[in-house]
Amino acid sequence: MSTQQLFNIEQELNTFFEKKIPYYKQRYSGVGAPAAYIPELKNTNPDYLACALMFPDGQVILKGDYAVPFTLQSIAKVFIFMTACMHLGTSRVLEWVDVEPTGDPFNSILRFELNENKKPFNPMINAGAITVASLLPGTDSTEKIEKVKLLLSAILDKDVSINEKIFISEWETAYRNRALANFLMENHLLAADVEETLLTYTKLCSIEITAEDLAKIGLVLSIDGFDPIRRIEVIPSSIARFTKILMFTCGMYNYSGKFAAYVGIPGKSGVSGGILGTVPPSFRNHPILSDGCGIGIFSPAIDPCGNSVKGIKLLEDFLHSYSVQIF
Ligand SMILES: NC(=O)CC[C@H](N)C(=O)O
C-alpha cells in the first residue's frame, strides 16, 4: 500500500472514531452499568469509551479514553486456555472441557445441579475456565499464574501486572465462583485444590491491560499467532486458530450467537467492559482490512449478559460501516 493510501486510511478512520465515540457516549449514556458484583469495579466511570486498532504494518489508531487501564476479567480465559494447550496439548485439555456454547449466563451453576453435562460446556465461561486453570502446570497458583503471564508478556513484549485492589475485591466476594469450583471438584473436574485454583483464576482475571494491548493481542490472533511487527510466532498457530473458533462461538457468554450473527468476528469480552476483537485477513480485496487487524474496545457499562453496551454498538457500527465480513 502506498504512503498516500495509508495516510488516507488513517485519516478516514480517525474521522470515523472522532465522530462516533462522542455519539455513542451520549446515545447510550445511563444504559447498563459497571459490574457491581465485584465491588471495586462498581466505581469505574461508566462513560469511558476507548477504541484501539492495530494493523499488520504496525499502524495503530487510538481513540477516546484509550489511556485508561482496566482488568482482563473474562478475557483472561483466552490466555488460560491457550497456556494450558501450549503445555498439555489441546486434546488433553479437551478431555476436561467441552467446546459447546451454553446460552446460559457466564457464571451459571445450573448445569451442574441438573448434572446434565459432565464436563463444563466450554473454556470461555467461568466453570470451563476454572477447570482449565486447575490444569495449568505448576505446583501452586504463583507458578501457574506465571505461565499465563509469560504468554501475555510474549505477545505484548512487556511485563503485565495484577491490579491487587480489584483482585482483593473479587476474592473477598467470589461466592458464586467458590460454589462453582466446589461443584467442579465434586464432579472430579478440578486437577488442583479448590482455593488454589480460585486464586489462580481470580488473579488472572485481575491482570491490568489497555485497549491498545487488546488490539495487539487481536492482531497476533488474526495472523494465527504470528506477530507481524517483530516477525516471530508467539502462539502456536493451531492453538491460535482453535482459540478463535471458541471466541467466535462462545466468547460473549449468552450473547455469543447474536454477536457472531450481527457483529461477525471472533470476540471475547470481560465484565470490566473490555472487548478483544480479531479481524482475520480477508481473501476479498478489502480496501482497509484485507490484511486483518486487532481491535481493543473498552467501555465499563455492561448489559445483563455482561458485555459492554457502548463497546458492542461501536464495534458493530465500525465493522458494518466498513463492510467487514469474515464469511
Ligand atoms: N464475565 C467476566 O468477565 C467474569 C470474570 C470475573 N472475574 C468472574 O469470574 O466473575
Automatic annotation (TrEMBL):
Q: Where does substrate bind?
A: S74, N126, E170, N177, Y201, Y253, V271
Could you tell me one molecular function GO term of this UniProt entry?
A: glutaminase activity
Q: Does the keyword Transmembrane apply?
A: no
What are the alphabetically sorted keywords of the record? Acetylation, Hydrolase
Q: What class of enzyme is it?
A: hydrolase
GO BP: any one term:
L-glutamine catabolic process
Show the catalytic activity: L-glutamine + H2O = L-glutamate + NH4(+)
Superkingdom to which the source organism belongs: Bacteria
Q: EC number(s) on record?
A: 3.5.1.2
Task: Give the protein family.
Answer: Belongs to the glutaminase family.
What this protein is called in its record is Glutaminase
> Which species expresses this protein natively?
Cytobacillus depressus
